[in-house]
Write a structure and sequence with these properties.
This protein has 386 residues and is mostly beta strands. The chain has one helix and 29 strands. The chain has two domains: 37 residues, no CATH class; 239 residues, 3 Solenoid (Pectate Lyase C-like), CATH 2.160.20. A hairpin with a 2-residue loop joins strand 2 and strand 3.
């Protein structure tokens, strides 16, 4: 269903020339009120954790400040998605965190078995089990979201979504790009200052051979085209040249795989743009593999953009020409630590190696705790060639 976040603000999304939606929505003057046709069993964001969620934690952190009453309180034990966000919040406030998590057998984590060592795959990303989806086809056009605080929940949209509003959430849904559409979700294209988009528990894919690029390929799973922050979590992304294009925000617990193969495509699991001054990007605990011809990288920071303030932590990375491109001579405050580089696609991690365009001479750059997950060097440190 599509609904405003606040019942007091029952304004709606702008649906761009979608006559097929007449049975699902009724126009009320200039506003669009949702007629709820959904029989979906939907979960509230932050509901009970999935068994495959990254964090299995005991939080003994505090005090946290409750903004509603300005009183401090101690968080109870948490797990799953709740725990993940609580840990980030506590870390930002300088509180101590104690985590307990299983020790994986990294050598067993290849292809479909990443969850065996607690990394994202098909079992713990995408639409949670038990949720029924309401289908919507946009007929080669985009569902345009133009009202702040809109929530898209429990839907399977074939076409694309264009987010041009603040604090929009897309959750527990499936988005399939089709026909002459370059992306599944684009954000901030006509209104580059919108911010706060969250994409959680979403499967994002395409119809092979039907896209606008050569051989029917598709370019972007999620394309952030403005300056706003973006969170992508617990999502299953495949079938595009680039899984996610992003400048700042949070990318966590996703499975990015099986990128689109077509002539001229240089594929990247995550492609980073330069963030606005003062903004940061965290890429944490994702499985990102790039297994196509002419692939570029699992994570790509292009030299010459002045990329800054990026943290890449605890990801499972494989493939590409080089698995990770480090941004080159003008990248600053890039922290890469505790990642696992896999040889499942190429003996060197990527075709030519694990890391390129990396410099420790740049202000704030740091590299530590990154190891080979498997292969003849399993458990040994991955050392960049400077």
């Amino acid at each position: 269903m599509i609904r405003p976040r606040s019942e007091a603000r029952r304004k709606a999304v702008h649906l761009s020339s979608l006559a097929s939606l007449a049975t699902q929505f009724i126009l009320l003057g200039a506003a669009l009120a949702t007629v709820d046709p959904c029989s979906a069993s939907v979960k509230k964001n932050g509901s009970a954790a999935n068994s495959g969620d990254k964090v299995s934690a005991v939080i003994r952190a505090g005090p946290f400040e409750d903004s509603s009453n300005k009183k401090n309180y101690i968080s109870p034990p948490l797990s799953g998605e709740y725990a993940y966000h609580a840990i980030l919040a506590a870390s930002a406030e300088g509180n101590s965190i104690e985590q307990t998590q299983k020790t994986p057998n990294d050598a067993a984590c290849i292809l479909s078995t990443y969850s065996a060592c607690d990394y994202p795959n098909s079992t713990n990303t995408g639409v949670p089990s038990g949720i029924s989806l309401t289908k919507l086809t946009t007929n080669d056009d985009c569902l345009v979201v133009s009202v702040d605080n809109t929530i898209i929940d429990g839907m399977h949209i074939t076409g694309c979504i264009d987010v041009e509003a603040n604090n929009v959430t897309i959750q527990n849904s499936h988005v399939t790009a089709t026909a002459q559409i370059w992306w599944a979700i684009k954000y901030g294209s006509s209104k580059p200052n919108v911010t706060g988009l969250r994409i959680l528990h979403v499967k994002i894919d395409s119809i092979p051979g039907k896209g606008p690029a050569a051989e029917g390929g598709y370019a972007y799973g999620i394309s952030s085209q403005g300056t706003g922050s973006l969170e992508v979590g617990y999502s299953d992304i495949s079938g595009f040249k680039d899984g996610i294009n992003i400048a700042h925000g949070l990318v966590h617990n996703n499975w990015i795989h099986d990128l689109s193969k077509y002539t001229g495509a240089h594929t990247q699991g995550i492609y980073l743009w330069k963030a606005p001054a003062g903004a940061t990007l965290v890429i944490k605990h994702n499985t990102i593999t790039d297994l196509v011809q002419n692939s570029t990288a699992a994570i790509f920071m292009k030299e010459g953009l002045g990329i800054h303030d990026v943290t890449i932590e605890d990801n499972w990375l494989a493939g590409g020409s080089f698995t990770l491109y480090g941004g080159g001579a003008d990248a600053k405050n890039i922290r890469v630590f505790n990642n696992k580089f896999s040889t499942e696609i190429a003996p060197k991690g990527g075709q030519f190696g694990a890391i390129s365009y990396w410099s420790t001479k740049n202000s704030g750059n740091s590299w530590s705790g990154n190891i080979w997950a498997n292969g003849p060097k399993a458990g040994r440190t991955v050392t960049p060639a400077y």
